[in-house]
Sequence to fold (427 residues):
Amino acid sequence: MADFNFELVSPERLLLSERVSEVVIPATEGEMTVMANHAPTMTTIKPGIVSVKAADGKTTRYVVFGGFADILPTGCTLLAESAVPVGELSRDVIAKRIEIARAELENTSADEQKTSIEQFIASMTALNGIVVAA
Amino acid sequence: MPSLKDLKNRIASVKATQKITKAMKMVAAAKLRRAQEAAEAARPYSQRMSAVLSNIAQAVGADDSAPRLMTGNGRDQTHLLVVCTAERGLCGGFNSQIARFARDHVRKLLADGKTVKIICVGKKGFDILRREFASLIIDRVDLREVKKIGFENADLIGKKIIGLFEKGEFDVCTLFYSEFKSVISQVPTALQLVPAAVSTDAAAETGAAAIYEYEPDAGEILSDLIPRNISVQVFRALLENVAGEMGAKMSAMDNATRNAGEMINKLTLSYNRQRQAQITKELIEIISGAEAL
Fold:
């Protein structure tokens, strides 16, 4: 199977840069699987799980908290606000994030912002369920 | 002329100082390496970010759908200056360089009849700017408790800036920090955050004239990206600052150690000379005493 270059970057460091055969990313408008020769796409990302299938068939999963992805036929770059391998994430971190978001929700009045924060909380809660199951 | 005992005490105290500065230099060197690594590790993100940003900016163009954070609100009456300095001194001219640079900028703006507001990041810049522009400082960010600067710290500052902009508190925002050129050279730099100075050259260079599909549409991505970009720029500035501070501290402490060494040499010389003089004097006294008999 054709492989392509995938990079997972957080503001602090380059987390991953390797040849992969497919990547599933949680785009804002639904999950999408990126494979080689994907049409050039730019998309924002909601909090969720990125599943990376390396060229040798091994799958690693990362939790990302928002960001965006830049997809080109020759490669894919995921700029995450923060990203952690699934195994290293504890429930407390998620719980804390939800708490912060809730506090933010109470402080804002603009409807638009409220919806976006509510969406954030919803996807975080979903994430919570996944991590606990894993 | 100080007595022998005075000289001895002074030599001892300078030696103690030298030991301290030497230790500080070594600590700074270790921290510098770490700070440099952090700055380097953060580079891919900000590079990609600006590439993507200029890409979208081109796609969206300068129509009305572009967020105001990028295009500005068309005025430039009120300026917000975010001045990033270090939390600690003892690093040569590092802090005063940034502060002086910012001060010149403020004076120029004030002379042009603009309104100026200042946010100080770091204690030292606050201390210096407070002397002259105490009334202009609207906020200060304290990073003293922070051991290692993470993205959250920068994000907080970024959110603060965006919040102020949305309230219409300022029209133009400029970030002041010190660019880390090398260990011995840090250049104070001003970077305009709002309206975002997006270069369209980057996109042309990468040949990213590729027609992108946007999901959701370009305008929405852009309005998500711009606030992020501000945080990223602040983060980069903070990291560069830390690296610069450590570099400056290292060379300042190196100088101090060398000066202390010189001073010790001089003091030892005059100590020895005086000791010899005393011995000679005592000998003369004994000899002349013996001759008188």
Q: What stands out?
A: The radius of gyration of chain A is 15 Å. Chain A touches chain B at residues 7, 9-14, 27-29, 39-44, 68, 70, 72, 77, 79, 81-82 (CB under 8 Å).
